[in-house]
Specification:
Radius of gyration: 21 Å
Number of helices: 13
Order of helices and strands: HHHHHHHHHHHHH
Number of strands: 0
Shape: globular
Largest sheet: none
Amino acid sequence: MTAPVLPAPAPSWSGRLRWTLADGLTLVGREVSRIRQEPGELVAALVFPAVMVVLFGYVFGSAISVPGGGNYREYLMPGLFAMVTFTTTVAVTLRVATDASRGVMDRFRSMPMARSAVPFGHTGAEILSGVLGLAIMTAAGVLVGWRAHRGVLPTAEAFLLLALMRYALAWAGCYLGLVVRNEQTADQLLPLVFPVTMLSNAFVPTGGMPAVLQTIADWNPVSALTAACRQLFGNPGAPAGDLPWPLAHPVAASVLWSVALLAVFMPLSVRTYRRRGR
């Protein structure tokens, strides 16, 4: 008489977490390796921020006066940091949609790996590439005259705030990529990012905009992130006077926007990926 075969005990919460993190880090390595094998994409991602610094800094710099005075390129750099941060959504959407349309996601689902590891891998890889792009843009800004004036700690806080927002937006891009599942459609989303970034205080003061557009710009998360960076870097155009709440408290507003995006799109991305495999 044979003894009954008992089912294996379910892994503990900590075991599932370690499994997810291990698989997620493996997929981060896969994304980094893929970018290394496609240097054209990496070069474009690194050159674009530097070109934007030179183009906007010298073309707009001769025509726009900074509120309260100051160097326009110092006023501009926080806005460019914010703009490039928000393009993260399209970049991740395109990569996730490409994997979905080419059957890579289906192969991942056939492997004994944590289901939530795939979204974590895509968003984690974006942070690594984003840090490199941010370093290139910072170097370009220093070359054209931009400086951070408030010391090491506030400067580090500004870059951490940019990284937090970038990570939150990467999850939004992951969800969109899982929903779109078509790389051609995802590629068409890039033009939609520019109205969001332009309708803000990133490049010009909002005071001269029509009332409706000014209200939209003042409550735009791009404006909050830009104002927070100007405040932490000590650059011209930092919030002052009677302002809407997001601009009066830009650091808190940027953190709240990031937390809200994570709270919405992290569970949506994981749930959508799991449902696609059923």
